[in-house]
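Priority: medium. Attachment 1 of 2:
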């Protein structure tokens, strides 16, 4: 397994933009305009400075995503198989020891996301670090905001080849460091046209 310590120079950022966008009317969420820019551009502007390089995982409109100047890769599993399929793609194309992920519909993600996940991954000698918010009944893990070792690629491949697709089930097979963030709004994702209109204001 990978024994390197994560820092900005050895972390690739992955934006997950491969979903169907069902609740948004089956449109490509990452390309929906938010405050004058596509949502994915907001995410890119916040995540890219925290990493050495970036990748986008998308299953539609690949030329449009490529215009943001970073490599774009579709899922290796057909049929919009969910975030683990995007994670598999990111790990496959990642050339650094660590991969940090965020979804394309979260334009307020924390500017210290990767640094805090990296600190926890190192301190707890974990395979993967994940963001959480809230406490007690309001506790909420955010599994698509994570930092993981690229050496987990084969482990994830076997999990997906067994037919499993649930991200929580895969995390349960790993040593996971949970990192609490106070700002719940930073992880707010925009799922519907109504939410998009509301947050625009």
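Attachment 2 of 2:
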């Amino acid at each position: 397994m990978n024994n390197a310590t994560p820092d900005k120079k050895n972390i690739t950022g992955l934006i997950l933009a491969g979903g169907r966008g069902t609740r948004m009317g089956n449109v490509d969420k990452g390309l929906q305009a938010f405050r004058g820019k596509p949502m994915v551009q907001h995410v890119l502007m916040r995540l890219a400075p925290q990493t050495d390089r970036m990748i986008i995982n998308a299953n539609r409109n690949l030329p449009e995503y490529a215009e943001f100047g970073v490599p774009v890769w579709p899922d290796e599993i057909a049929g919009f198989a969910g975030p683990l399929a995007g994670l598999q793609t990111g790990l496959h194309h990642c050339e650094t020891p660590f991969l940090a992920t965020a979804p394309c519909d979260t334009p307020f993600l924390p500017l210290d996301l990767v640094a805090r996940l990296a600190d926890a991954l190192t301190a707890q000698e974990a395979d993967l670090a994940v963001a959480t918010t809230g406490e007690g009944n309001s506790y909420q893990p955010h599994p698509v905001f994570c930092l993981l070792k690229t050496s987990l690629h084969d482990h994830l491949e076997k999990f997906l080849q067994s037919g499993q697709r649930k991200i929580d089930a895969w995390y349960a097979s790993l040593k996971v460091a949970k990192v609490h963030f106070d700002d719940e709004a930073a992880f707010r994702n925009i799922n519907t046209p109504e939410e998009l209109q509301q947050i625009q204001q």
